[in-house]
Each structure stands twice: as structure tokens, then as C-alpha cells.
Amino acid sequence: MFSRLSIGVAQVVRTFSTSSQNNVKVAVCGASGGIGQPLSLLLKQSPLVTQLHLYDIVHTPGVAADLSHIDTPAVVRGFNGADNLDAALKDAQVVIIPAGVPRKPGMTRDDLFNTNAGVVRDIAAAISRNCPKALVGIITNPVNSCVPIASEVLKKAGCYDANRIFGVSTLDIVRACAFIGEAAGHNPLDVTIPVIGGHSGVTIIPLLSNCKPAVNFPESQVKQLSERIQEAGTEVVKAKAGAGSATLSMAYAGARFALSLVRAIKGEKNIIECAYVRSNVTEATYFSTPLRLGPNGIEENLGLPKLNAFEQGLLKAAIPELKTNIKKGEEFVLKN
Ligand SMILES: NC(=O)C1=CN([C@@H]2O[C@H](COP(=O)(O)OP(=O)(O)OC[C@H]3O[C@@H](n4cnc5c(N)ncnc54)[C@H](O)[C@@H]3O)[C@@H](O)[C@H]2O)C=CC1
Ligand SMILES: O=C([O-])CC(=O)C(=O)O
After folding, report:
1. Best mutation site among 28, 37, 56 for ligand 1 pocket (most ligand atoms within 8 Å of CB)
2. Which of 116, 138, 169 is the last residue of a domain?
3. Is residue 132 part of a domain?
4. CA–CA dist 89, 97 (Å, integer)
5. Domain with 54 in it
6. Average pLDDT of the chain?
7. pTM for the structure as a whole
8. Where does the sequence pass through the membrane (predicted)?
């Protein structure tokens, strides 16, 4: 069930040596939220994490006390309020950020910019002070703008390393595998597919032509599946009817991505994930493509997979939107 997450079942957890020299400290910023809590649970369940720091502006003492009673090796500490942000991040090797407000029906991800831009800016500034070498995964929306925001803040602080800053788009891949698995009659865990571009509407580019095992859907179904993957976040926002956006599937996807970073830090080879990163693959200066991960973040950007005519059309539609989103993030840091 958890094969994509690579987290241990109880037996694995119990046999894991806590004296491992490969300690990995992970910090979650926004740990008390709809994503933050189940994400922190999945990280606590993993034998790969040895220290788990939970930061939020509310409720972290309770979340940390609760999780700390789970019989796995990770030592859990809660950090509440802005005064404790620096301590939460001190020497973290992986920082995952689901802090900020989610969408309500009728909103776009870009409508979250005004609230969430400042949240990401302040956390990025704290990263520069306390853990400039951390691998950072940004979940907060709008991801397309928040990654440029964090990058500009780190540049200003003189510690920017493009290989270490990731926009987490793993949920798009998880959804693509689920929907294609269902449509093709495959176990979704056997499906792999790159989803490239960004993380909002038309900027999400699923590459069904690169799906493994290969799928042979009629054109109309390829279009319908691609649009469903692009609009899947909105599908959840509508179904939750005012109670927020995807949290549980995002926690699953976020844990998978965070644990891929942890495994890379521990020296595991050939870990490939798509993520939204600084890029020269297209005209957009940030773009998600498959990446080979290593202890220092991106080891190799595997570039643009081969696109068919339909997918080239999706790419063409995505670029102007991505450029606008990126510019908005960069200008925010210049002015604020
Ligand atoms: N990248 C992706 O694929 C996805 C991204 N998201 C985004 O993730 C974000 C969080 O979503 P939810 O967990 O559902 O929201 P939520 O409202 O349930 O939780 C957000 C948490 O962030 C905390 N927070 C707010 N300001 C903060 C600050 N300055 N410092 C630290 N913590 C702060 C809140 O106290 C709250 O606990 C949203 O922006 C949402 O749009 C959601 C789903 C998928
Ligand atoms: O749709 C949203 O607002 C949250 C999100 O990014 C997703 O579920 O993909």
C-alpha cells in the first residue's frame, strides 16, 4: 500500500537501528494544518526520519505531543509562533512548507497570492538564517509564484542554490496514476507518468504518451483525462464545498516527495521525481521536469520528455501563464 512512499510498516520500523549515523532532521512549516498534520504523521511513521520539527503559528504543542506517542524512532518537537521559527529550522536538512491559506470554491490558486506570498517569504528568510543548505519543498499555493519568491529571498541573503529549492507537484503525478490506472484497468501503483510544467490549471502538463505501461486511449479520452488531471484540485475544492482543498492526498504526495529527498540525502541512487524548479528547459525560468535527486538536491535535470502534437499544444498554452506567475513572485520580493 505504501510502496510509493517507501515508508516502513511496523516491522520495518521496529527493526530500524536508531543508532544510524545517517540522522535526518526534517522540519514541517504549517504542521498544524489540514495537510501539515497527516503529512507529519506519515513522516513520523517513516523509519528514515530521525528528528521531526513541527512549526506553525498555532496548535503545535498539541500536534507534537500527540505524534510523539507513536512508537517510531523520529524525535518530535513542536515550535509555536513566529518567535520559535528560527529554532524550528536550526540545522534542518529537509524543510517542507504547507503553511498558508487554501482555496475556497470560486477562487484560483493565484487568488491566494496576497496572503501566502508573505508567509513563504518569511519562512525562506528563516531558512537562510538557520539551514541554508536544506532541501526545501514548497507546497504552499500558488506554487508557480511561491518558488520564485523563496528563490529571490535566498538570493538576497546570498545563499541561493537552485538545486535545493523545489515546488512540490507530486500530487499531480499521484492523481495522474490514480485516474489512468482506473481508466486502463491497471493497478495505479504500477503506473508511472511524468507531469511537467507548473502546478495550476493549464500549466499542469500530463504526458500520457510517456505513460508506463503504455496506454492507448482514443484522442477524446486523452483530452478528457488530461483536463481532469489539470482540474483535479478544483474537483476537490468543489467537493469540500468551502471546507478547503486537497489535504489527505496532498499529505500522501508530500510525504512521498519529502522521503525521496531524505533517501537522496542518505545516498540512495537513481531517485527520480518531477518537481517545479529553476530551469532552462523551456522559456519559463521555473518548470517541472523529471529530476534525478542526490544528497545536494538536483543531481541532474532529465529535461523535456518527447512530446506528441497534443502535448506540444498543452506546453504552448502553459508558458505565458507560467511566465506571468514567475514574474509576479519575483516582483513581490523586489517590492517587499
Ligand atoms: N502543492 C500542492 O499540490 C498543494 C498545495 N496546497 C496548498 O497548501 C497550503 C495549505 O493547505 P491546507 O493545509 O489545506 O491549509 P490549512 O489552512 O488547513 O493549514 C495551513 C496551516 O498553515 C498555518 N500557517 C498560516 N500562516 C502561517 C505562517 N506564517 N507560518 C506558519 N504556519 C502558518 C496555519 O496556522 C495552518 O495550520 C495552501 O496554500 C494550499 O493551497 C494544497 C493542496 C495541494
Ligand atoms: O487546488 C488547490 O487549491 C490545492 C491544490 O493545489 C491541489 O489540490 O492541487
Report:
1. 56
2. 169
3. yes
4. 11
5. 9-169
6. 94
7. 0.96
8. none
From atom 7 of ligand 2, which residue's Cα is the shortest distance away? 233
> Is the CB of residue 256 below 6 angstroms from any atom belonging to ligand 2?
no
Question: What CATH number should be reported for the domain holding residue 298?
Answer: 3.90.110.10
User: Which residue's entry shows cell 512548507?
Assistant: 97
Which atom, in ligand 2's list, is nearest to the CA of 246? 8
Asked whether residue 256 is assigned to any structural domain, the reply reads: no
Summarize pLDDT for 8-30 with one digit per residue, the tens: 433 333 333 333 437 899 999 99
Q: Are 128 and 18 in the same domain?
A: yes
C-alpha span between 271 and 207 (Å, rounded) = 20
| pLDDT tens profile 224-233 | 999 999 999 9
Q: Is residue 307 part of a domain?
A: yes
Cα 68 to middle of ligand 2, angstroms: 29
Instruction: Choose the final residue of a domain: 123, 148, 169.
Output: 169
Q: Which triple of cell numbers denotes residue 95?
A: 524543510
Amino acid at 126: A
- Residue 212: DSSP 8-state: B
pLDDT of residue 9: 34
Backbone angles phi, psi at 307, to 5 degrees: -110, 140
Query: What is the set of active-site residues?
Result: 199
Amino acid of residue 7: I
